[in-house]
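Troubleshooting log. The previous run stalled partway through. Resubmitting the same two chains, unchanged.
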Amino acid sequence: MTSIGGTPRVAWRLATVIDNVPETPRTRTLLLDVPEWPGHRAGQHVDVRLTAEDGYQTERSYSIASPPEDAHLALTVERLEDGEVSPYLVNELRAGDKLELRGPIGGYFVWDLPLGGPLLLVAGGSGIVPLMAMLRHRNAALANADVEARHRVPARLLYSSRRWDEVIYRDELARLATNDPTLEVTHTLTREAPDDWKGFRRRIDRMMLAEVAWPASERSRDFVCGPTLLVEAVAAALVDLGHHADLVKTERFGPTGA
Amino acid sequence: MGRVAESRTANYDKIGGITPFTTEMTPVSRGFLGRRPTTDKAARLPPGQYETRDFPVLSAGPTPRTLLEKWDFTLLGTTGQSAHWTWKEFLALPRETIKTDIHCVTKWSKFGTAWEGVAIDTILADAAKRGVEPAPYVMARCDGGYTANVPLADLMGGKAWVAFIYEGAPLAPEHGGPARLLVPHLYFWKSAKWVRELRMMEQDAPGFWESLGYHIYGDPWREQRYAGDE
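Second attempt completed without errors. Output:
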C-alpha cells in the first residue's frame, strides 16, 4: 500500500544532545541539534528511537517544547518511575550523546499566529509542553509587533500542577506574563500549596473554567493537554460552557507515555 | 530476545579501487539497556510498539455524547442506496465475541482485549437485502465529525466489527461508546470511535488523520505510521 501523492517519508535523523537541563525534580529539557530539521509547528511531536547494544529497539513520542523560531529542538521529558525510556532520557543522556528521532508529527493539535485568537490553553502536568511551544511561538512571532497586534491574539493559560515545585517552566511563564499584558497565566495546585498561596488549589472544574476561560462568545481557540481525566473533564466543561466542539482541540498524556 | 536493529546498506563510492563491504547500523544509544518483552510477547508486538496494560484514551476533541434513542447506524452505497438500523435493531443483529490485540500508532499495544459487536460481514449481508451494493473503499463517519478510510476487503472476512461491549460492559464514551469500529489488524485510529455511518466509495480518500500526515492504510506490522512510510 502506498501513500497519497508520493509524500516523502518522515526520515529518522541523528540528533546530538547539546544540553540536558533540569526543569523540575522529575522533568528535564533535552536541547538537541538536529541536522536538516525541516521545521515544525507549535504543538507537534517527534518519535524517539533508542537502540540497545544487542539491537533491541524501542520508540516513544515526545512533544516539542521549542518554537519553530529556535535554532535547536527542545524536548521536555517527565521521568516516569516505571518507564523504560523516560528515565534514560532524563537521567542518562548528556551533552554529546546521539539521539535518533523523526518528525515533526501531527497536524491537528497545532497553533501558529495566522490561526489567530483568542487563545485558551489548559494544561495538566507535563501536558504543558506542546502548549509552551505555542506560547513561545506567540511571543517570538509578536516580538516586534505593536500592542494592537498582541491584542488581536490575547492568550490565557490555565495550568494544573500537583505542587509549586512541579510547575514546569514556572519562571519563564512568570516572565512572559509580566512582560505581556495580553497573556494571563493562572495556576492551580492540586496536592500541596505554599502557605501564602492565594491561587486555586483544586482540580480544574467547570466553575474554574467559567472564571478563567474566555466567554464562549469570544470563540477562542482552545487547546487542552494533560492526563485523560483532566482532558475529558475540561473538554466536556468547555463544551458545556458554550465553546464550539470544533474549536476545542485535545491531546492526552496517558500514564503509558513512558 | 529483542528484535534485530534495522540495517541499511550504505552507498559507497569506490575509494582507491576498494569497495568497502559494510552495513550502516542504527547507532547504539549509549547506556540504554531497555526492557525486553518475553519471547511470546515480542512475537505479538509490531515494530516500534510496546505493551501497555492501561487503555489510554486518544481523541482530537471533546467526547461526543449521543443518546441511544437518537443513535442510528447507516450504510451508504455509492449511488444513493442506504440501509439504517436503530440502536434496538442493531442490537438484534447476530453478534460475536472478539478477543484481540490492538495497536495504537502512538506506540502502545494492548494484548487480549475482549469485545462484543456485530461483524461488518453481517451488516453488509443485511444491507445487501436492502439493495446496498459494496464498493472497494469505505469511509467511516462518526459523531463529532471524525472520519477514517478503510478498504472494504479489510472490513470483510471476519476481520472487522462494530463493537459496543468492552470487557463485558457497555463501551465507555471516551473509548468510543456507544459503538466504535473495530479493525484490530490496522492501527487503532482506523477503529473509529462513535461510528455512525459507513459510506461505500469507488476511490480511496483520506479520512481525518490520513489528511493530517498519517498513513493512508496503517498496517502496524509494516510500521505504516505516517504518510510516506512504505
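Takeaways: Helices of chain A lie at 86-92, 128-141, 147-152, 170-179, 206-212, 228-240. Chain A touches chain B through 52 residues (CB under 8 Å).
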